[in-house]
Amino acid sequence: MAKYSRLFKQGLPEQVENQEELQPEAEANERFTLLFVDDEENVLKALKRVFLEENYNLFFADNADQALELIDREGIQLVISDFKMPGMNGVDLLREIKKRRPEIIRIMLTGHADVQAVMGAVNEGAVYKFITKPWSDEDLRLSVSLALQQYVLVKENKILKEITKKQQIKIKNFSALYDKDRKSLGNILIKQGVLKAEDLVTAQKEKKDDEFIIETIIRLGIATDAKIIKALQSHLGIEFIDIKETHINPGIVRSLPKDFCERSRFIPVRLEGNNLTVAMADPSDIFLRDNIEFLTGLKVSPLIAGSADILKAIRQSYGETENGQDDDIDVMTGIEPMDEIDIVIDNDDENINVQELLNSSEVPPIIRVVNAIISEAIRYKASDIHIEPKTKFTLIRYRIDGILHAKIKLPIDYHASTISRIKILSKMDISERRKPQDGRFTVKSGTRLVDLRVSTLPTINGEKATLRILDKSASIRQLQDLGIIQDDLDRIHNLMQRPQGIIIATGPTGSGKTTLLYSILNTMMMPTKNFETIEDPVEYFLEDANQVYIKDKLGLSFANVLRSTMRQDPDVILVGEIRDLETADVVFKAGMTGHMVLTTLHTNSSVASITRLIDLGVKPYLISSTLEGIVAQRLVRKICRYCKEEVEPDTEMLRLLNLTKKQVGEKVFRGRGCQQCSNSGYGGRVGLFEIFTMNDDFRHIISSNYKESEVLSLATSTGMYTLMDAGIAKVKSGDTTLEELIRVLGPQTRNEYKCPSCNAMIDMKYLFCPYCGNFKHNVCKVCKLPLEEEWVKCPFCGGHKDK
After folding, report:
1. How far apart are CA 326 and CA 320, in angstroms?
2. What's this model's pTM, rounded to 2 decimal places?
3. DSSP-assigned letters across all residues of 688-722
4. pLDDT, tens digit, for every residue of 564-604?
5. Is the peptide bond before 134 cis (omega within 30 degrees of 0)?
6. How far is 624 from 614, CA to CA, in rounded Å?
7. Beta 682-693 vs 627-639: how paired, if at all?
8. Residue 381 region, left (φ>0) first, then alpha (ψ -120 to 50), else beta?
């Protein structure tokens, strides 16, 4: 057998009575069966040559229909398919194979493909891996062997699940033999003076079938739960545990049958090595403890807990399935392919020490710790990782949907090694701990390619590291899926029709600017135009665009690359960010010379971007003649759809946002908090957008005597929705909450006065109340300027004060 086909062989799990049960079908036959699908005969011949020396059964098909016939007839374990084929394409073929034979490993091998379609299939699980042509023979062999190794693991996993089910049935049968009333509990309570003998007799007569004796005593009012627990503690010398305040792993609870735990009122709460800590309503039942030890093979350490609390915790740990039946064991799905992360090394780094990267820490667990931190962040879909040294531990926090969540605590002894590992991956100086440093590296997690931008900062407890996560494999979202209201969507489509000019996306870091620009770029895509992107780093992969990675160390700055791009005959250019005057100057000159330029800027509002550009040094006439539109945006959390409920708007929130009930409605929505949203009340995010489009009036103001307030006033009067207007619309539609508007936009303040007639709050510049028509007093009749109470005449024009 060739070297790579040996890799899928796995040692069988130990401590299983019947080892023959674990032999997967393919392993028993000693050979795997592979199917190659491609409409090009030369490609099939090349694949046959690559795997000729391997110990596989090989089948070949030149179209999808022939492949599906082979799938139904032969015991195939792995399929490698081309994308472009006559009739059914490769993605649809692999989707169909997944429906018919989901256990088959499916690989896409192609030189030209619709990347969005392929990535969609990858996310659906239809494609295990995506390999491009031309391929490396060695890499292809290794990928196939690892995929087949995955196949064996999934097979073993399914067999183990069946064995576990059988063992659970046996345990249930055994547990029925041990469910006996030993009567020691009643004797203890009588001895401690909690019960009288006749009370115990009464409780035993009144006990219901589904009731524990302690619950009967409490229900009849003979004794309280606190007295019973205190008596047992005093007699047995066993500690009390508050189940309500204890985190219990459902996996540990499910190691024993639910009905056994309920009948005997106990619940496993902790597993440490060979020791199982069990909370019991009656820890005096030594026979029950012996029976648990016999069933689990573990040493039992008992604690006292309330009977009702134990019952509630058991039911929470097990839950119920959709058909109303209890779930006795976890449903074990297939193992996630390529679950560990791989470090991707840039080929253009000549000075990199590969061996140092692979063995970057003298403490092997550190590699696993860092990998686990990054893997968890990717699983949670976090945008940032914060590694923060504290006095006694290192805290790992993830920013999920814009909010930081503390997820992991590491021993403080691991901190220095963890930071060193990250520094080595990021190509930083590990000996320098007194100065901030920046770096980046790339990891591969399954089929996802993720860029991490790293920043370190010295603090009083040690170095803090922050990692920004950019998923290059994420699919580009459609404009209509971003949460843009229809009027603003029409404005964006109008901007996209312009033959030249500049469109700016503005907002703070992490507000979704690049996501918006790529959605616009994806909508504009057509084969008759040349699209170029210049970014640091490239955040999305776009097949039909030429994408350039900025590398300042090599002299590839935004301005330099943009100048070179101008000689590449571009139609549409995406520039990652305007950071300085040099970049801004080249961007605006590109917009003037017949190119459409998409870029980003960091400002708080759309109109403020014009002020920022002037502050950078861009000439006002360049801005007025070249700028076509500005989109300011923020991201707010969406209310969880599983626990959404109607409530009355909070008056304090309305006051902070300077709103009235009439503006948001009598009822708004909030998330109550459930398991689906981790009790946060939110799930996912949606955008708020403020879209400024240029016209002749704005061009005149900007080029002559620019005032930000005048432009903003004119823009809002002509129908521009501000970020607050967009936020109010999202609150009224039930997408987000008033609290989110406060968090993202902050309290809203205006220069107002209270109308003495109707008590409404009026803008200071209004002389008449728009609600009741009352005229503003204490102003001059002639010049309308404010006057003091004791003044008789206006000091500005000599007119009389209005009385």
Report:
1. 5
2. 0.53
3. EEEEEE--HHHHHHHHHS--HHHHHHHHHHTTPPP
4. 888 888 899 999 888 888 889 889 988 888 889 999 999 98
5. yes
6. 11
7. antiparallel
8. left
